[in-house]
Recover the amino acids of this structure.
């Protein structure tokens, strides 16, 4: 059965898009079939793969508006890597879809409408806890939380975990937090170490509780700050295509191994 | 008359909050009376100043819901620096206020309801182009756009300028773009130079046109990447209180001089 992982953090600029783009590619390189979904109106994941949807392209907007289906709108990038593109028109979705009675279940409905050929689905979310992110939480099995080890980025974590718990209790009982991924990590800063300790303490205290984050971890793999990760999207390439020997490529490849191990795969 | 400047960029994590917090303080240090407004549900600007609103505190949410007024909800930090705090409850504002007939004009109405004692108002916006950011665009005289010199951050600029032009044409004819502020700048990267050149070319091409960005500039002052800027919010301090000799303090102080010169002040 397909595993759907929502990559979420309402704090902006913490590495969500960069992680979906490069972790997705790294998993696909090891064999599994991966579908990347861009549900951010900025459409940066689509851009990262060099896709700029035009009028004729079906996007996530058409799927949520029930005018297209997932298989119809999903593009094949390589034989086992797929992308459901976004569009800046999606910004209007919050208001156009807000009146729909099942507005938070639209993505879930499209996912369950037919059986999908993928092993993993990774969803790139916008920096907010609004309608689009709620759709991802309702549809997902697991949540991966990219975090920049900065004070402001840490502040939203409790609110995010609270929101995840609400969705798990009311709508999606299988939802759980897979873990926190440290991005743009600079090991020399004391700030980085302090933030990591706070997150570690938080999860230790949650062990054995009845929360969706009781088994959450901080991934051992840390994504180091590496300018090559910021350069590759301007060429429409993943870090592996752009600079396979960079720290960015090493880190996201190591993360793919650790991610797959969570599901008993290699 | 008070000058209201909205600090906006729908791209997340580009330095909006850090700029409002530190530019605001730097302007106040030179004499003018400054009010900082936090309209982001993350409430990071409030946090940056060590304020965590509780149930009893009036916030921007009460002002927009017309249950409180600006003078009532604004807190004095120093004799000429004020803060209108936000709250995470503001996240619900998008849906609770969405039905209001003048939903995009609520901030404007609260600003014009009485004469305010301030010389400048700086508004920290969330990373989106939704209801809260539209309220800031309707209420503002000028827009300051923080930009991280990265490819993904550059992509949203055209969409942001398009939105500003729409608001100027339909609702707020006085709205104009003051300029783009380069944040987290690392001079050694080629990516930084390329992005700067693209923005410069864009504004050169707009000279003499009838757009709100025809006179926009890239601020000569560049905010260099400086870990002290990421550390100071954890102490509830501005960069000037935390480390007055850091690059961050030097850069935001220089920016205050350049900002005030735009208004014929020193
Ligand atoms: N490890 C890294 N080292 C250096 N730069 C990085 C790294 N990860 C991401 N970046 C860059 O930092 C910026 C923010 O990353 P990204 O856009 O992936 O974050 P995001 O959480 O998706 O942002 P948003 O909240 O706007 O969706 C981008 O310009 C990206 O290229
Ligand atoms: N010049 C700088 N050098 C180093 N770190 C910085 C700098 N400016 C901001 N930061 C840090 O980078 C992160 C992003 O900055 P900030 O939160 O101000 O951006 P933002 O645009 O307000 O984000 P959001 O879109 O989430 O509101 C924060 O952790 C901040 O402390
Ligand atoms: Mg993103
Ligand atoms: Mg902010």
């Amino acid at each position: 059965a397909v595993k759907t992982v929502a990559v979420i953090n309402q704090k902006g600029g913490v590495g969500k898009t960069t992680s979906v783009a490069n972790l997705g590619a790294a998993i696909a390189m090891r064999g599994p079939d991966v579908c990347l979904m861009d549900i951010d109106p900025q459409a940066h994941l689509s851009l990262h793969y060099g896709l700029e949807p035009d009028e004729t392209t079906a996007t996530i907007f058409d799927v949520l508006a029930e005018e297209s289906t997932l298989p119809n709108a999903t593009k094949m990038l390589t034989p086992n890597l797929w992308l459901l593109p976004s569009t800046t028109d999606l910004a209007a979705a919050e208001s156009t879809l807000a009146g729909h009675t099942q507005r938070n279940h639209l993505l879930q409905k499209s996912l369950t409408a037919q059986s999908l050929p993928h092993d993993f689905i990774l969803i790139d979310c916008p920096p907010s806890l609004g309608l689009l992110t709620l759709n991802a939480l309702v549809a997902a099995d697991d949540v991966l939380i990219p975090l920049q080890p900065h004070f402001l980025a840490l502040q939203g974590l409790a609110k995010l975990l609270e929101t995840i718990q609400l969705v798990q209790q009311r709508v999606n009982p299988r939802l759980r937090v897979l873990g926190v991924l440290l991005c743009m990590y600079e090991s020399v800063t004391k700030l980085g170490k302090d933030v990591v300790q706070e997150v570690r303490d938080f999860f230790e205290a949650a062990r054995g509780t009845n929360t969706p984050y009781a088994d959450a971890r901080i991934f051992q793999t840390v994504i180091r700050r590496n300018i090559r990760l910021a350069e590759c999207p301007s060429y429409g390439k993943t870090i592996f295509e752009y600079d396979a020997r960079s720290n960015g490529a090493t880190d996201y490849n190591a993360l793919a191994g650790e991610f797959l191990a969570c599901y008993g795969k290699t």
Observations:
- Residues A 16-17, 40, 44, 124 surround magnesium ion (ligand 3) (CB under 6 Å).
- The two ends of chain A are 17 Å apart (CA to CA).
- DSSP finds 13 helices and eight strands in chain A.
- Chain A touches chain B at residues 10-14, 17, 41-42, 44, 47-48, 88, 91, 94-95, 98, 126-130, 148, 150-152, 155-156, 159, 186, 189-191, 194, 227, 230-231, 233-234 (CB under 8 Å).
